[in-house]
Design brief:
With 202 residues, the chain is mainly beta. It contains 2 helices and 14 strands, in the order βββββββαβαββββββ.
Length: 202
């Protein structure tokens, strides 16, 4: 991704190309649906189409000055986004949970969800813990994400680790879903992205 010219569509977000510590980056902040979670709030790559392959990106999150107490620095990717922004898969991280002592929050460092039905709230209400896990991450630091997508399976890696932080065997929109790629952000978060690399495999 050329972080100065790639066409971006803001979906319930404010988006701008800017510089962070002298580097060109994409800044994404939630604009609408401010008190709703796991929604279609992302910056979408115009014309992108992704089925199987690898998505790599570096991302950094900060809490906004008016962030509520429950903000976690939510930042990640949306993929296989349909044309009407009503269905997609997503993986995101919660950097404030990365190095905390609270064992419950610590195990919620990363999250998979599938829009519109299978949100983190849906999983938690049913006591399903398969779609989140721990990660050694923090605010205001670059986090390298690599998502390897094959059919209904997603493997998610952080910071060049050889072991995935999360494996999802049955992504909810199924093996044949495909669509655009986006940069996901949630409540109270100032998100920055750079160095996007997409490798497609059919």
């Amino acid at each position: 991704m050329n972080t100065e010219t790639t066409p971006i569509e803001a979906v319930h977000t404010d988006v701008e190309y800017t510089k962070l510590n002298g580097e060109p980056v994409l800044r994404v902040v939630k604009k609408d649906k401010l008190m709703e979670f796991d929604e279609n709030t992302y910056a979408k790559l115009v014309g992108s189409s992704f089925h199987n392959g690898t998505i790599e990106v570096k991302m950094l999150s900060r809490l906004l000055p008016d962030a509520p107490d429950f903000a976690r620095g939510f930042i990640g990717i949306a993929f296989r986004i349909n044309d009407t922004d009503t269905k997609f898969e997503s993986f995101y991280v919660r950097p404030t949970n990365g190095r905390i002592e609270d064992p419950v929050r610590k195990n919620r460092g990363v999250q998979y969800f599938s829009y519109p039905k299978y949100t983190f709230d849906y999983f938690r209400n049913l006591g399903i813990t398969d779609f989140e896990g721990p990660a050694d991450i923090g605010l205001d630091e670059w986090i390298s994400l690599k998502a390897v997508i094959n059919g209904a399976k997603g493997e998610f890696y952080l910071n060049n680790s050889e072991e995935p932080v999360l494996i999802v065997e049955n992504m909810k929109h199924g093996a044949n879903a495909k669509g655009a790629i986006g940069f996901f952000v949630d409540i109270g978060t100032e998100a920055f992205f750079k160095d996007l690399k997409i490798t497609t495999v059919e």
